[in-house]
Design brief:
Elements lengths: L19 E5 L4 H12 L3 E6 L2 H10 L4 E4 L5 H15 L4 E4 L15 H28 L3 E6 L3 H4 L5 H21 L4 E8 L5 H14 L3 H9 L10 H12 L10 E4 L7
Parallel strand pairs: 1-2, 1-4, 2-3, 4-5, 5-6, 6-7
Helix pairs in contact: 1-9, 3-4, 4-6, 7-8
The protein binds nicotinamide-adenine-dinucleotide (NAD).
Length: 268
């Protein structure tokens, strides 16, 4: 279904219409939900992703968006994307550092150093690369907002997923430091910490963990939900709405924060 180009909700989140927003991994999962919601609010969306099929969907759903193939762990591809976005949009008002992979599941003695590096490279260094190449355009626009995707794993830790958890703790440190550095440039920086998000990725995580512990998928899913006060998973759209709020005028004095969108998850 095509999303209308003009915002359907102009009064609920003032200040979004016309914002030029770049989104990493913006064609699938949570990133796609963010891209589509911002697009529906009248933002000018530039996104990149590595998946060809996801990129095709994004092009179909958002015909006026700038959609490109790039890997967040490739400095050359990230630089080329931001050069193109800055050129096409004449500047940038916001950056959503969404890309991140679950990484390996396993005890610390079983995780290979190359799997560790890949997880941290995509989930943490990738945020640095995008920010490095986006900030000059945001400064030139007179300020804006950056939203970094962390995780409840970046607050509580996550057994058998140490690379992921370490990357997500790193995202919070990156966010708090950037908020101090960029505040005087009128750039707000916040982290969102989704909890257990419904979708294929979480199904894979629960499946892996169930196999590791030797129980059925349904039983492991129940165990996961028992850790959530609200006893339900959040959706990609829940996360997207929080991003939209942070970019809107409503978020104008929110910076340096780590915002859980998790139904009050106790641990992962
Ligand atoms: P996902 O696994 O569904 O992937 C989303 C998109 O990322 C896909 O389209 C994929 O092609 C793209 N991608 C993967 N590697 C990439 C790379 N190297 N460069 C560019 N694009 C790449 O992810 P998701 O569940 O939507 O998660 C999005 C963000 O939210 C991640 O940072 C993730 O860690 C975080 N998060 C997710 C959950 C969850 O339960 N899904 C929970 C907490 C935090």
């Amino acid at each position: 279904m095509n999303v209308p180009q003009t915002s359907l909700l102009p009064d609920l989140l003032p200040g979004l219409k016309g914002q030029r927003v770049a989104i990493s991994a913006g064609a699938g999962g949570i990133g796609l939900a963010i891209s589509k919601l911002l697009y529906a609010h009248g933002c000018r969306v530039a996104l990149f992703d590595v998946s060809d099929s996801a990129l095709d969907t994004a092009r179909h759903d958002m015909p006026d968006a700038l959609v490109a193939k790039a890997d967040v762990s490739s400095e050359a591809e990230v630089e080329a994307f931001f050069t193109s976005a800055g050129h096409n949009f004449g500047g940038l008002d916001a950056l959503i550092n969404n890309a991140g992979i679950a990484g390996p599941t396993g005890g610390v003695e079983d995780i290979s150093p190359s799997d560790w590096r890949r997880c941290v490279e995509i989930g943490l260094t990738g945020q640095f690369l995008c920010t490095h190449y986006a900030v000059p355009a945001i400064k030139a626009a007179g300020g804006g907002a950056i939203v970094n995707m962390s995780s409840a794993a970046g607050r509580h830790g996550y057994a058998y997923r140490t690379p992921y958890s370490a990357a997500k703790f790193g995202v919070i440190g990156f966010t708090q430091s950037l908020a101090k550095e960029l505040g005087p440039h009128n750039i707000r920086v916040n982290a969102i910490l989704p909890g257990i998000v419904a979708g294929a990725r979480m199904e894979g995580v629960i499946k892996d963990r169930a196999a590791q512990v030797g129980i059925e998928y349904a039983e492991m899913e129940t165990r996961y939900l028992e850790r959530v006060s609200m006893r339900r998973m959040v959706t990609p759209e829940d996360v997207a709405e929080t991003v939209a709020f942070l970019l809107s005028n409503g978020g104008r004095n929110i910076s340096g924060q780590s915002i859980g969108v998790d139904g009050n998850v106790e641990t992962l």
